[in-house]
Amino acid sequence: MSSIVPYLQVIQDSSLSTAFRESAYVWGIVDGVHVIGLCVFLGMLLFWELRLFNVGVRSASVSETWVRLSPWIMVGFVIMVLSGVTLFCGEPVRYWASIFFRIKAVALVLAGLNAVAFHYGIGRKLVQWDVQPLPKSAHIVGITSITLWIVIVFCGRLIAYNWFAPLY
Amino acid sequence: MSMLPLFQWIEATSLAMTINNSKYAFALIEFLHLLSLAVIGGAVLVVDARLLGLGFRNQRVSEVAAAARPWLIGSLIGIVVTGALMFSSLAAGKYYYNIGFWWKMYLLAAAIVFTFAVRQPYAMRANAEGGTPKAGLIAIVSTGLYLGVAIFGRAIGFL
Questions:
Q1: How many DSSP H helices and E strands does chain B contain?
Q2: Does the beta-carbon distance from A44 to B34 stay under 8 Å?
Q3: Cys-Cys link to B91, which of A30, A142, B10, B126 (CB 3.0-4.6 A)?
Q4: What Cα–Cα distance (Å) separates residue A30 from each residue in A87, A105, B45, B66, B140?
Q5: Can you give the pTM of this predicted structure?
Q6: Residue A42: its chain B contacts at CB < 8 A?
């Protein structure tokens, strides 16, 4: 079924992956960077989502808020992805077998689709919202995004725990 | 005077024992701690960025600080409450002997004092300016202190 496992095993058995996994300090630093990336990304994303509900820095228009916050959101996201992929490569077989990792991966894909749908769909009218009230669809996207990110943080934290039998 | 007896007493409270005896409690508290961390990251950074002349540079510093204030205070409460719960469960057994824990607490105390004694009074003033050397220094010290708390928090697991 899960034919990806042999490939993950090759990554895990590589000398680089093994060295990373066994080096407690390097692993800890990358894990710390992952959390710092989360703070920058999710913390700044929060102020963007708040603006969609007319809360936060209200004298900034919706489009200006995006211009001001998106660089921070993007940088935080890149830090999270790079450190996250690195962490994954340190123990890919175990992560793949974790129910929390799988839920996190699905939630990440959904969050990505939600963001794409927003910015290429309703979000194309961003400048209109500078003068018009925000539509309900923007609120739905905002709530979906925050909910998915809470799920992602929850599952991310719980990947550390082997509460359930591995999935193979 | 040693604080060890106090730490031992904390670890023996029924609250600490409940956390210790639960399979899921510590992990759930960790999750809430992490979520508070993400919020505080934004609440600190959005204002410190403004003080550095970045981020919302067309808005007044005081407006950005006022918008972030409830999130800053709320997430600080969240961090301290969840942190105290995790601390209680291993107060004497782990944290008392961990130098990373002590430095994290010193830096957290410094960060809170600096935030409410220096940064907030400066940033909340109606005519507060960003992008000046003084504002930039305040921002760097503020972000630096919270980053220090995070670094020593991470180090607890390795010391």
A1: 7, 0
A2: no
A3: B10
A4: 7, 19, 21, 34, 23
A5: 0.92
A6: 38-39, 41-42
What chain B residue is nearest to A54 in terms of C-alpha separation?
B67
How large is the average pLDDT for residues B66-86? Answer: 96
Q: What DSSP character marks residue A64? A: H
The owner of tokens 């660089």 is: A71
What is the extent of the structural domain holding B69? Answer: 4-158
Q: What is the pLDDT of residues A86-117, one digit of tens each?
A: 999 999 999 999 999 999 999 999 999 999 98
Facing B158 at nearest CB: one of A24, A158, A163:
A24
Cα distances (Å, whole numbers) of residue B45 to A31, A134, B50, B154 = 20, 26, 8, 20
**What percentage of chain B reaches a pLDDT higher than 70?**
99
Q: What is the pLDDT of residues A1-56, one digit of tens each?
A: 558 888 999 999 999 999 999 987 899 999 999 999 999 999 999 999 999 998 98
- The Cα–Cα gap between A144 and A53 comes to 13
Closest CA to B114 of B142, B153, B147, B75: B142
Tell me how far apart the alpha carbons of residues A35 and A83 are, in angstroms, rounded to a whole number: 9
As separate numbers, helices (DSSP H) first and strands (DSSP E) second, chain A gives 7, 0
Q: What is the pLDDT of residues B113-131, one digit of tens each?
A: 999 999 999 999 989 999 9
Contact with chain A for residue B117, Cβ under 8 A: no
A103 contacts A151 by C-beta, under 8 angstroms: yes
DSSP output for A91-124: SHHHHHT-HHHHHHHHHHHHHHHHHHHHHHTGGG
